[in-house]
Amino acid sequence: MRRDVFQAIADPTRREIIHLLARRPLNLNTVAEHFDISRPAVSKHIRILTECGLVVIKQQGRERHCFADLGRLKDVAEWAEQYRTFWNKKLDALDAFLAKEHKPSKNKK
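Structure for ArsR family transcriptional regulator, as requested:
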C-alpha cells in the first residue's frame, strides 16, 4: 500500500525521523536511539515513511541504513503554497487598509 505523504508529516515522531535522516543516513538502531519509544514502534514509523516514499532502506552488509528521499515533500510545499499566496494577499489588503485608516489628517495639528 502506498500511503499519502501527508500521513507521514502528520506525526511528530515521523517528522523528527525525517529531520534526522535529512542530515545523514542512519542505520535503524541509531534512529531508534534518538527516541524514548520501543524499537518496534520506531520500525513502524520507518515503514510508514518508506510507504510514503520519504525514506529508502538499503542493505549494507549486515545493517539496514535509512536514507531520506525528500522529493515527495514537494507535494506538501505545493499544497501549502496556495494558502501562503492566499494569506499574503489578505494581509497585504489589511496592511493597505490600516495604512489608509491611520494616515494623519491634513486638517489636524
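The chain has two domains: 5-70, 72-101.
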